[in-house]
Amino acid sequence: MTGFVFSEKPIGIERGEGVSLYDTDDREYLDFGASYACAPVGHCHPEVLAATTEQLETLTYVQASYPNAARTALYDSLADVAPGDVDRVWLCNSGTEANEAALKFARHATGRPEIVATMQGFHGRTMGSLATTWEDAYRAGFGPLAGGVEFVPYGDGEAMREAVDAETAAVIVEPVQGEGGVNPAPTAYLETVREATAAAGAAMILDEIQTGLGRTGTLWAADGHGVVPDVLTTAKGLGSGLPVGATLVREWIAAEAGDHGSTFSGGPVVSAAAGATLDVIEREGLPAHAADVGDYLVSGLRETLGDAVREVRGEGLLVGVEVKRGANPVLRDLAMEHRILALPAGRSVVRLLPPLTVEREHADRVIDALEAIVA
């Protein structure tokens, strides 16, 4: 084994179908992690496969300066479903790149140096987005990072008002903190961020890398809160596992965004996959389905686990179970004893974010397994 970046788990995954993954011995695992929300319509959805295969057989890649039907269609689809008038689209390859672009655009458009981010926030691992990521474990050894970033407590509206001033280019915030422990923001807090940035002439960047595309019960978490940011970033499940991200901005940001580029911005193959993914999410009503199954899952976990865990929280199908011991032993038992794959969110939170196509019977299986492990 020559790889060194990731610590590999003792389960070799060979194929996927719907809400299930299969190992090299063809054992089935219920996927309640979706590789960090990268499979919103399930694994190997036939319409996504068909669109991607058709594009592969026609044109694999052409740079973004040449118009291409798949890329243009994705621009139009994202603009059509964007919150409010956040309808100018920049395509890239990942969530961290989408956030890098958002930070660059905001600084150029405002001519200001300062960024406000939140404690426990996670916005990526490249040098600019890493500077806005809170946890020391991600930052250690990579300094000095980009300067001009101030961190304030997540959910503290008064601290946000005090931090945003005439030097602030942007506030970057997640509507639900994922890596930080599955912490949903109250609507009033996001409204405060919106009011503070608007009053100061700064940009509100809503990081929907993990919450977007129906995950929280509406297509964008912004829709559920009735808040329209200046910039919205998305990635994760946009390409059903193929690497694509997007930065959506209002016109005032786009007009002053400056020079930014990427060789692989919106390649035809990933654009075809993303367009098909968006179409399936909308046509099959997956945001509403996520809200229904998510409510069922959270209610069932709270009723069944009770005081055996500290808290169950989340929105839609982004759910965190804060356990009384480390999350990793629980995740190991889920995988090895119950064949359910989930994720950590910090040291003590088990994160559940399955494909949006899961049903209540799948939720029951997870509830029963967690009861057996923690109760």
Radius of gyration: 20 Å
Q: Between the first and last Cα atoms, what is the distance in angstroms?
A: 38 Å
Overall morphology: globular
Please mark out the parts with pLDDT under 50 across 5 or more consecutive residues, or reply none.
Answer: none
CATH class of the largest domain: Alpha Beta
User: How many individual β-strands?
Assistant: 17
What are its keywords?
14 helices, 375 residues, 2 domains, Aspartate Aminotransferase, domain 2, alpha/beta, Aspartate Aminotransferase, domain 1, single chain, 7-stranded mixed β-sheet
Describe the structure.
This protein has 375 residues and is α/β, with parallel strands linked by helices. The protein folds into two domains: 47-283, Aspartate Aminotransferase, domain 2, CATH 3.40.640; 286-374, Aspartate Aminotransferase, domain 1 (Alpha-Beta Complex). 39% of the residues lie in helices and 18% in strands. The chain has 14 helices and 17 strands. A hairpin with a 4-residue loop joins strand 2 (20-23) and strand 3. It is globular and about 55 Å long. The mean pLDDT is 96.
Outline of the structure:
By secondary structure, the protein is of the alpha/beta class. The protein has helices spanning 34-37, 46-56, 69-81, 95-110, 127-131, 136-139, 157-163, 187-200, 221-225, 251-254, 268-283, 286-305, 327-338, 360-374; strands at 13-17, 20-23, 28-31, 88-92, 114-118, 149-152, 168-173, 176-177, 183-184, 203-207, 231-234, 245-249, 311-315, 318-322, 340-341, 343-344, 349-352.
